[in-house]
């Protein structure tokens, strides 16, 4: 959550401040035992406790942030919408995270070859940026699926993609209209990142 970033920043500022105070006290009064009024000893004790306390709070905040920070590729739709609404993550960042994961696993690493086609990066990012602008200007999401990334099997039509049904025979078949389910999801704000593999002409049990 975004508020954790602010908490960490405040704690860090306080920690630095108290360490500076401690350093000044240590420099001015290197041995509080010889100070008769005991003020320095109190400052030593108080400053040390505060510095340790703030340091521990900073450490805990970092741990909390690591545990509870938003991870787009493992989030539910509800969690993603909450993160987008709160500003913890932008639509552009959300889409980039998923594109990076596709590149890391489908096109590199294990090379899953699950994606038949991918959306043009500049086009999809332009839409994502427009969603961010809409949220900033109005304070509301564009719909119930605001910036939720999705992929579709290559048997669903979309004018931006060829519908090949995994067959080379139809590699140039580009539909004029969207499948109803794709149309409804995009109307609600979802973003289609690409189309995925399937058996030829959807014949098979995979």
Could you explain how this protein is built, in words?
There is one protein chain. This protein is 52% helix and 7% strand. It contains six helices and three strands; from the N terminus they run ααααβαβαβ. It has helices spanning 2-28, 39-68, 77-86, 91-105, 121-138, 180-187, and strands spanning 115-118, 149-153, 191-196. The two termini are 38 Å apart. 19% of the residues are buried.
Structure keywords:
206 residues, 6 helices, 7% strand, three-stranded mixed beta sheet
User: What is the chains' assembly state?
Assistant: single chain
H/I helix tally: 6
Helix content: 40-55%
Q: pLDDT below 50 for ≥5 consecutive residues: which ranges?
A: 32-37
Q: What would the principal axes of the Cα set say about the shape?
A: elongated
Question: Can you summarize this structure?
Answer:
This protein is mainly α and 206 residues long. It contains six helices and three strands. α1 (2-28) packs antiparallel against α2 (39-68) and α4 (91-105) packs antiparallel against α5.
């Amino acid at each position: 959550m975004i508020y954790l970033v602010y908490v960490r920043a405040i704690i860090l500022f306080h920690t630095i401040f108290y360490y500076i105070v401690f350093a000044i006290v240590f420099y001015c009064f290197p041995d509080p035992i010889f100070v008769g009024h005991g003020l320095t000893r109190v400052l030593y004790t108080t400053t040390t406790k505060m510095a340790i306390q703030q340091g521990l709070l900073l450490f805990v905040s970092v741990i909390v942030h690591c545990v509870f920070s938003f991870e787009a590729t493992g989030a539910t739709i509800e969690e993603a919408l909450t993160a987008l609404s709160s500003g913890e993550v932008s639509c552009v960042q959300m889409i980039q995270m998923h594109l990076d994961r596709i590149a890391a696993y489908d096109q590199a690493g294990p090379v899953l070859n699950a994606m038949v086609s991918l959306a043009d990066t500049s086009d999809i990012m332009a839409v994502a940026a427009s969603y961010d602008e809409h949220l900033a200007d109005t304070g509301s999401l564009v719909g119930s699926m605001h910036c939720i990334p999705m992929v579709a099997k290559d048997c669903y039509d979309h004018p931006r993609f060829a519908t090949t049904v995994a067959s080379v025979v139809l590699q140039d078949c580009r539909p004029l209209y969207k499948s109803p389910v794709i149309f409804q999801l995009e109307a609600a704000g979802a973003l289609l990142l690409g189309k995925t593999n399937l058996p030829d002409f959807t014949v098979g049990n995979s």
